[in-house]
């Protein structure tokens, strides 16, 4: 392979045709991949300040996390909800090279106020335009008419829309023209079998918060005709889904969980551990029975992921970084492992974080090792096709034709 500037200009067998004066890198016996893409990595970290209504974002911590992601082979990220002014400024600084980290695409601040009128929703989109958002994001509280308004106004300005939907189901969002969906399921009442909906509505009243997620998943039928039709619709329209399995596993992990709460890579971020213990322990009041029910229902979530994969849905990798117990950088590799647990092959997972992510981003310059693409590359010492855990065997990371990391990260 020959790289000139930030591009791959030639790929040859046997390392023939070297260029005079070029740096030669011997990769014999190693494994070259496109840089990993995290499609759900929020750029700015909110800090724990009990009693404050508005989040306070920590630019320094956010820059530290961006640098760490690069060390884990992540060369591109998408931030699906970003404080419009602060967040898009950080995106611009990263992309200009003023901050070390993956190149970034980012949404404006999410839109989630169910009281907003049609005119106010359109104004929210237009007001963000001077900051040049790559996306807009509609959130859980918006109903179908409100989601339709945001999609219409954003598309008028040729900007795609990401949906973290709940009041509006995925099926409704897809019919309205949503471009991307976040997370593995929508937790919508309409996505449950009709006979199960009354009991779930009662559970919402009796068990508010994340406990009701258990009730929803227990009632969910991934094999129903409606869900199979949804899979067909998502696949046909090429609506991407970033799965963020780690967001559920991390959030609903018990105190003794070695993977998340005791992750050795989290030692580099003591401020995150402190914040998550003080302000964001979603299961602090869970009982042993709650954990038992979640553990029993969780395989259904994995079966749904496998069903979407088998049905041809454009699945991509994402972590929901900044949420509790997701360690910057290493969290994406943990997500790979959860996808493997769901039954996806290493090749499928690698495509999700490469070519499929590039397709979802509508980019033809990343995600694949081929002539004309950016030289965003990761060299591994072990074959990830044999075990997806080998994505951690990083020897170096190249970004834009320059080696920016020369060893695997350490805790």
From TrEMBL:
Pfam families for this protein: Amidohydro_1 (PF01979)
Listed InterPro entries: Amidohydro-rel (IPR006680), Metal-dep_hydrolase_composite (IPR011059), Metal_Hydrolase (IPR032466), Metallo-dep_Hydrolase (IPR051781)
Superkingdom, natural source: Bacteria
A GO MF label: hydrolase activity, acting on carbon-nitrogen (but not peptide) bonds
Entry keywords, A to Z: Hydrolase
Keyword Amino-acid biosynthesis in annotation: no
Amidohydrolase-related domain span: 31-169, 303-404
This protein's record includes keyword Cell cycle: no
Protein's name in the database: Amidohydrolase family protein
Organism from which the protein derives: Asticcacaulis biprosthecium C19
Top-level taxonomy: Bacteria, Pseudomonadati, Pseudomonadota, Alphaproteobacteria, Caulobacterales
